[in-house]
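Good morning C.,

I know you're traveling, so I'll keep this short. The sequence:
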Amino acid sequence: QVQLVESGGGLVQAGGSLRLSCAASGRPFSMYGMGWFRQAPGKEREFVATINWSGGTTYYADSVKGRFTISRNSAENTVYLQMNSLKPEDTAVYYCAGGANSYGSSRSTDYNYWGQGTQVTVSS
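The tokens, ready to paste straight into the viewer:
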């Protein structure tokens, strides 16, 4: 059974940092792109960042570019999202997604597997 499990969420003040982790089990994701998405209350799920199979190519939503960094450790089947300079508008449930093509994707429909989400709350 394939599972993606996120961790690292929490409550942080504006300007602070958090590092999210996504541990995959049940199958290796080393040949697939991975992504992070988020959903704020009353809003649709939106793309945050994606990384290709090798980790050599990344792509970010404009709203997080320069503040967030996605990375992966394929040997450990884990993907990370380092979030710096957090803003109250970053408050959302953050979801890890896997199983897209090898290049990664900003489209949620391209992913086959999803984690349960981890809450990130940024206070002003």
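Safe travels,
E.
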